[in-house]
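Give me structure tokens for this 601-residue protein.
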Amino acid sequence: MKEDRKVSLKENIKLSLWSIKFIYEIYPKETILYVLISILLGIDSLIYVFIFGRTIDLAIELSQSSQVSMTSIIPLLLIFLAYLVITSIMYSLQGFYRSKLEYFSHSYILQKNYQRVKELGLQELERPELLDQLDLTRRWAGNISSIFLSICRMITNIFSLFSMSFILLKYTPFLLPIIIIWKLISYIPISKFRDKDWRYQINMAQENRKASTSAFLLQNKSSLKEITITGSFDYLDRKYIGFFNRFLNFIFQLRKKWQITEGIISIVDQTLEIIGYGLILIQTIGDKISIGETTIGITAIRNFGRAVESTNRSFQSINNYAIRLIEVYDFYNREGKFKDGKIKMPRLETGPSIDIKNLSFKYPNTKDSLFKNFSLKINKNEKIAIVGENGAGKSSLIKLLIRLYEPDQGRIFINNEKLTIYKINDWYKNIGILFQEYNFYEHLTAEENLFLGKPKKKIDRKKVIEAAKQSDAHDFINKYPKKYKTILSEKYDGGIKPSAGQKQKIAIARLFYRNSPLVIFDEPTSSIDALSEARIFNRIYEFFKNKTVIIISHRFSTVRNADRIIVLDKGKILEEGSHEELMKLNGKYAESFMKQAKGYN
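Here you go.
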């Protein structure tokens, strides 16, 4: 549970101004026009009641005249018509601009979200509090446009409120402060209910995320296979339903009390309205005001009450949105864990040297360090392999090297220069990496899957085919219905479903197409048969001859031809050397290699 966070008036104003600025940056002209229309519609009711009241009085005067002339009322009716036409146009424009701002802001916000995730870096996404914040941002960032629209509604209501106040001061001066005081009093309990409602949803964000994950797994084809076979459907179903039963029970109990309170407030509101009508009618009977003025007074009483209520509701909506948007605002303005470098790194012609010195690192929210004073030097164009049991730190070391994570202590040097001085995107341009959980773009064609290895430049179809040949992917791609133009999923018309091994070969081909100075393979052939694996690795060593290559693998047969093999154990280098040297050492590597060799036999 999160600690309840109060949004002060100052924060409310800050978030409101930030939301207006946010929307203005998307569509400046439409934002200004929408605010101006909101102001004009605020005085709409004042103009209406005066024209309407004057029309009634004129009609009565004409009916009592001995010489009735309809031409006397025509100018007023034309003014009334012009007013109605202009008002209709303004409401239509307001509706058009509102739809435009809402729809386009949602698209812009989605883009803003994934750009922000990229800026913060993966290290920040290891933090549960940030994951909660990201989940809330995904669900609630749309309220940026909502708070802007609420501000505009409040502007309309405030102008309407002042307009009606002038009328009430004339006809029922002592009732005006009574209505205002009552509206302020009635605002307090409703505001507490709304505040409690929204805060409960914020505090339950992490539990909501867990329940939603269960629901996602229960409708995802990949996960549903194991769930069905193991019989875990009912358990996950109970996880989902159990949370939402508790969640919705609290919400509905709260809203039942809320509705009862609103019912009582509504009765008092209507009683005050009737008293106001009575005071106006007494003046009418006493011949102190005309029928037209009676209409103006009664309409003003009704509109004033509605305007106060709408202003309260708009203000509370802004406050409720602010409670949500404080998380969104914090997420958009959150600083990353580490800063980008300032020096531009050129495209390297050959593989870089890498020198890791006295590196220490632990994951967020963990007590024990994964690395302590860890050092490793990799020479230019060297082909090294990193092996070790699960949890030894192999993949974590790579994530530190490519700056997805920042070490707690120590330095990483690239060609004898600190890695942190370089712009991170320039560093990425020199890296090609195949993660263990690699990306496969099933909604794209085979050609596009390879092209994303180097998407900044125009596609080179000859190199696409050459890269596919290097990874043993060309032959099966050529058998697809549209060859390299085939979409790689049966979910789309004309698409096919590649096997797990074919997917991995296409992902490896993407690295061949990228052809970067530093190439990293993290468990690159886990789904590929032994013969293809041997061929691919022979090509890797040959193709990337003048590159620095790092290979992480559990299969010792794939790494035996590396220049140097590093055996990691619990964040430390246990052994290192060539395959022959490590076999002679007869240590951990030799033991593991022999076990795997027996397994293959």
